[in-house]
Amino acid sequence: METPGHGPNGGNRTQETLSNLLQETRRFDPPADLAAAANVTASAYDEAERDQLAFWDRAAERLSWSKRWDTTLSWNPPFAKWFVGGRLNVAYNCVDRHVEAGNGDKVAYYWEGEPEGDSRAITYADLQREVSRAANALTELGVRKGDRVAIYLPMIPELPVSMLACARIGAVHSVVFGGFSASALKSRIDDADAKVVITADGGFRRNAPSALKPTVDEAVAECPGVEHVVVVRRTAQDVAWTDKDVWWHDLVERQSDEHKPEPHDAEDPLYILYTSGTTGKPKGILHTGGGYLTQTAWTHHAVFDLKPESDIYWCTADIGWVTGHSYIVYGPLANGATSVIYEGTPDTPHRGRFWEIVQKYKISILYTAPTAIRTFMKWGDDIPAKFDMSSLRVLGSVGEPINPEAYVWYREHIGGSRCPVVDTWWQTETGAIMISPLPGVTAAKPGAAMRPLPGISADVVDDQGNSVPDGGGGFLVVREPWPAMLRTIWGDDQRYIDTYWSRFPGMYFPGDGAKRDEDGDLWLLGRVDDVMLVSGHNISTTEVESALVSHPKVAEAAVVGATDPVTGQAIVSFVILRGNVAESDDIGTDLRAHVAKTLGPIAKPRQILVVPELPKTRSGKIMRRLLRDVAENRSLGDVTTLTDSSVMNLISEKLPSAK
Ligand code: ATP
Ligand code: MG
Asked: Which residues does the UniProt record annotate as the domain Acetyl-coenzyme A synthetase N-terminal (predicted)?
């Protein structure tokens, strides 16, 4: 059964909740100048506390509505409707209203292609014309309000343009990450019953064109419901052609660049996005327009302190993941931000490419993932040191718990020790950031997401659903609905209820463990399914990994619990050493002693394996499930969501030399 918390190590346990092992005493106050001019101050917490719904009303008022809502929230647990009766056009809010306000010449996106020198600046007026043309093109193809459109594109401007064109006409987009296989694409097209697919001949990946169209052909051959495939020419590779295919440039470019945006109901579907599949069969998460745009825009304004007139903002995620949907497309555009979109990988053509981009565009706000930060640590401090990154003022992290050492490295080596780091916890299902420091308010602790944002009722509970006291650990829950919450799993209300609302009656359970420290601040401990049970103690993989990463020789670590006759489960660790560290015979002893000293003897790994790489999902998260298979000498489970399945061979070869 896939309900979070019911996996092999998950919930239903009667033992004590998560042990609270890690002690972290470092604090970083907000910079005084940032605090003095911050978009959001501490009073926001009080306002939301006094009246949560009035707080969200004010956040919604930041958008342009063609009809104001009658009721802020209608709550028929677990089904929520926000801003009931309100009407708005999401694309109008993201594009046209900025042009109408006189900001048409302002850059919406600096697009940086992977091949160096291939770049474009797209103003809000350009975006309005392109989105209008694409909306007219979809209409010509017979796409109507409520129809689903699958989008399978590389990180090129046509991707946000296609999303906004759908939003404009009320069609529901389903973006499928460009790295997915034909069968993954097919199952997503099928599940959403998409009528049109928008794709490209290919994209650039590590200096070479990488084809997309053959994958689409293979998928669409088995999807009779698809009527048209629109193909962007990006790489000019040869492509096979079917009678469903039409070139984007033939179809879109001849359209009128004017299109009148009709208002849609606040609760009309905006998009479906399948979760990344770290734990099992992906779920089609459904988001609607009004509440989603309200919360993505407000959180982007608050958590990044975005000043649209002066900031240059860069979120390095792929638009194929929720982070890209909410914080490259909808939140930033609703706020009139200037953003950078980068097509490629951080190591092409060299390992300083990210920092070169920061320097080139004078990025002031950078939002990236722990997996990237740990990779940069592994590559060495000297690489970012070569670039001028004095423009940066706020740094963000999302996707996994950030190890305190990685946080401090990010702060020092990327942020020049002057930029606050916001560790933002949220997920596809929540639609927008839920738990995070505020950069002008919070004295942040490295590795902690700190507090629920104003308007969010997150809590940590024990097995029975009772709030844990300060100093306790357990399960993260959300007690009240929030505007950007998923409305259901597409076509499967029962699975929605079972997955998120059944573990703790009346509460949303995201599947993650958390602890609340003595000050009441929250630390996310990863998925409950990743928690280990060692000699009767629940120990989080995150805490042991963070202890390992705090050793100067270690860049990255993954920890799993393997069945052990004595302790129930024993801790097995896989570590990647930092750039210039050679593997030595005593490294295992050294690291085990370090963990024992940092967390206590109970957390000492039974085995430490030095490996060259770790298995990661395509969204960059460590796949502990596969490492558990290795540690327990089982044959490997499903590896299709792995970025690089050869990594597992390299790791398996390491086993006999376990230290
Ligand atoms: P699936 O649900 O299909 O297994 P997934 O959970 O990896 O995939 P996402 O919605 O992209 O898909 O990821 C959300 C999860 O990522 C959260 O539930 C949490 O486990 C983790 N996460 C995200 N941000 C943070 C953070 N700042 N700190 C700790 N964990 C985080
Ligand atoms: Mg998930």
From this structure: 43-94
Average pLDDT (132-151) is: 98
Residue 42 neighbours by CB distance under 10 Å: 13
Q: Is 530 in the pocket of ligand 1 (CB under 6 A)?
A: no
Q: Which two tokens stand for residue 452?
A: 């629920």
Could you tell me if residue 438 is inside a domain? no
d(CA 420, CA 372): 18
Exposed/middle/buried for 336, CB within 10 Å: 0-12, 13-18, 19+?
buried
Q: Parallel, antiparallel, or unpaired for β 312-315 and 365-368?
A: parallel
From 315, 425, 451, 527, mutation site for ligand 1 pocket: most ligand atoms within 8 A of C-beta: 425
The type of residue at 97 is: R
What is the ipTM score, two decimals? Answer: 0.99
Q: Which of 187, 191, 278 should be mutated for ligand 1, with most atoms under 8 A from CB?
A: 278
Tell me: the pLDDT tens digits for 444-501?
999 999 999 999 999 999 999 999 999 999 999 999 999 999 999 999 999 999 999 9
Q: Residue 78: is the preceding peptide bond cis (ω within 30°)? A: yes
Residues with CB under 5 A from ligand 2 (ion): 275
Which amino acid is present at 119?
S
| Helix count and strand count (H, E) for the chain | 22, 30
139 is annotated as contributing to ligand binding? no
Q: Is 400 in the pocket of ligand 1 (CB under 6 A)?
A: yes
Angle 12-639-578 (CA atoms, 0-180°, nearest 5)? 90
Tell me, in angstroms, the distance from the centre of ligand 1 to residue 426's CA.
7
Enter the tokens of residue 333.
Answer: 């555009």
Q: Is there an atom of ligand 1 within 6 Å of 278 CB?
A: yes
Q: Is residue 585 in some structural domain?
A: yes
Q: Which of 260-264, 339-343, 412-416, 541-545 has the lowest mean pLDDT?
A: 541-545
Count of domains for the chain: 1
Asked if residue 477 belongs to a domain, the reply is: no
Residues 158, 164, 166, 171: is their CA dihedral positive or negative? positive
Residue-range definition of the domain harbouring residue 574: 535-654
Beta strands in 38-137 (DSSP E): 71-76, 79-84, 87-88, 107-112, 119-123
Residue 556 lies in a domain: yes
Question: Strand (E) positions, 510-579?
Answer: 512-516, 522-527, 532-534, 537-539, 554-564, 568-577
The single-letter code of the amino acid at 183 is S
Residue type, 536: G
Ligand 1 centre distance from Cα of residue 369 (Å):
11
Per residue in 308-355, pLDDT (tens digit) is 999 999 999 999 999 999 999 999 999 999 999 999 999 999 999 999
* CATH number of the domain bearing residue 550: 3.30.300.30
Ligand 1 pocket test, candidate residues 489, 512, 623, 624, most atoms within 8 A of CB: 512
- Residue 187 in contact with ligand 1 by CB distance below 6 A: no
Q: Tell me which ligand sits closest to the C-alpha of residue 277.
A: 1
- C-alpha–C-alpha distance, residues 332 and 76, integer Å: 31
Ligand 1 atom 27, closest CA: 425
Q: Both tokens of residue 35? A: 């605090």
Q: Is 398 in the pocket of ligand 1 (CB under 6 A)?
A: yes
